[in-house]
Design a protein that fits this description.
By secondary structure, the chain is of the alpha/beta class. It has twelve helices and 13 strands. The longest helix is centred in the C-terminal third of the chain and has 21 residues, at 211-231. The model has no long low-confidence stretch (mean pLDDT 95).
Length: 316
């Protein structure tokens, strides 16, 4: 039976690849895609979610949630790595939607409609999740599982020396979610940065004649150029896609139960994910944390899932 999933995201090219997989993979019933500010501002994030889904035209459209301004956040974005529009500066046109609902409401409604039956896959800052939990205090125990892309155990960040982007962008919301009673799994940089995609990954995408293949072949070259020009790297990382693979194929990941929190005030450590790794931990374990994965098998899963998507979305 397909797993009911909500993807909460801040698209972002890697988010777009993950959504392309989730829309068509038979293991997932994608009930909603909710936007949040992060890689791009809130309005652009909402537009990008809509652009991805309209462009791919799945057999059944998920509900869409609109991002709203994230007050009190760190105020950084990732447009240098994703383009000014977040999708490689492709300028996708979207239809005008009326009566859009805020993301946190869509999340609450979907979980309430199927208690203990919905997995929340969080690919951006945790703003919407914290808001949903504040809006409906019973919601954390009604979510089947929360799978979070972000953080780091080894203390090596990607937006500051010690902080990962999603945690840094809205550290207060991240702390709220970490401390909530929801069942959760964290897929940190320690694992996602081991899955490096060289240029030959482009050759393994669905054909350009398919909707998925044509879409991804338009946006992914920007990522390769950004990694080469700004980081001096010939391979790319798709952190959010690795996180989705952990939902599709959990056996490819080795997880450990850990106790984690998020630093919200440090001048040098804002957004740092902190874990009690003492010999005798004093904090109670509150999440499963992915510690290792098989990179080649993870990439094979990406390719296979995208191949299914290409077959399901065979043309314009």
């Amino acid at each position: 039976m397909a797993r009911k999933v909500i993807i909460d995201c801040d698209p972002g090219i890697d988010d777009a690849v993950a959504i392309s997989m989730a829309l068509f993979d038979p293991r997932i019933d994608l009930v909603a895609v909710t936007a949040t500010a992060g890689n791009v501002p809130a309005e652009q994030a909402s537009r990008n979610v809509q652009a991805i889904i309209e462009r791919l035209d799945p057999p059944r459209f998920p509900r869409l949630g609109a991002a709203t301004f994230a007050e009190g956040c760190a105020g950084t974005d990732n447009r240098l790595m994703h383009g000014d529009d977040g999708l490689g500066n492709q300028g996708f046109v979207v239809s005008r939607l009326h009566h859009q609902h805020p993301s946190e409401k869509v999340i609450c409604d979907a979980v309430r409609a199927d208690p203990h039956g919905v997995t929340l896959v969080c690919l951006g800052p945790l703003t919407n999740i914290a808001r949903a939990f504040q809006r409906d205090p019973e919601l954390p125990v009604l979510v089947d599982r929360l799978v979070i892309s972000g953080g780091c155990v080894d203390g090596v960040g990607n937006v500051t020396a010690v902080a990962e982007f999603n945690m840094f962008f809205d550290a207060n919301s991240a702390r709220t979610v970490f401390r909530s009673p929801v069942t959760k799994t964290l897929v940190p940089l320690d694992v996602t940065r081991t899955v490096r995609l060289t240029l030959d990954f482009l050759d393994r995408l669905p054909p350009e004649t398919t909707r998925v293949g044509g879409f991804l072949r338009r946006i992914l070259p920007f990522t390769y150029r950004a990694y080469h020009q700004r980081l001096g790297q010939e391979s790319i990382l798709l952190h959010d896609v690795v996180t989705l693979v952990s939902v599709l194929e959990p056996a490819l990941f080795e997880c450990t139960e850990m106790s984690g929190d998020v630093e919200t005030r440090g001048e040098l450590t804002l957004g740092l994910t902190v874990f009690d790794r003492r010999h005798s931990p004093q904090w109670r374990a509150n999440m499963d944390v992915a510690r290792r994965a098989d990179p080649e098998k993870v990439i094979d899963c990406m390719v296979n899932s995208l191949s299914l998507a290409g077959s399901a979305a065979a043309g314009e």
